[in-house]
Design goal:
- The chain is mainly β and 119 residues long.
- It has one domain: Sandwich (Immunoglobulin-like).
- Helices cover 0% and strands 41% of the residues.
- It contains no helices and ten strands.
- It starts with a strand and ends in a 19-residue tail after the last strand.
Length: 119
């Protein structure tokens, strides 16, 4: 599922997304771009919409519950003020939560099983 993240920070010079889906990575050596399969430990760069001041990233996520924060200008970790669920981050702040579910009526593709050996 493609999940869109939007953060309001018009005066920021750089924003990226870090969370449990990429091991909280800020690594610049392996960037992941919107709508491309998200590699483990890949930084998710957000793009600024100059008309709105919103930073936007759309990433593919499997169904599940994920924690995340926005990293503003390299070192300011910010929770998402627009998500209803947060959890303690263990550092005196809060992590935002996103729940990714399959749309009703859709099913996940079944796992492919290796054929049984012929005897």
């Amino acid at each position: 599922m493609l999940v869109k993240f939007v953060f309001d920070a018009p005066s920021a010079t750089e924003v990226w997304l870090a969370g449990s889906f990429n091991n909280w990575s800020q690594s610049k050596s392996n960037p992941a771009y919107p709508a491309v399969p998200l590699a483990q430990n890949a930084r998710v760069v957000m793009s600024l919409d100059p008309a709105t001041g919103y930073w936007i990233a759309t990433i593919p996520l499997a169904p599940g519950r994920y924690q995340y924060k926005y990293v503003v200008d390299t070192s300011n970790w910010k929770e998402d003020p627009n998500t209803p669920e947060h959890v303690d981050d263990g550092f005196g702040g809060q992590n935002s939560i996103v729940m990714v579910t399959m749309p009703s009526g859709e099913k996940e593709a079944p796992e492919e099983k290796a054929p049984e050996p012929v005897q």
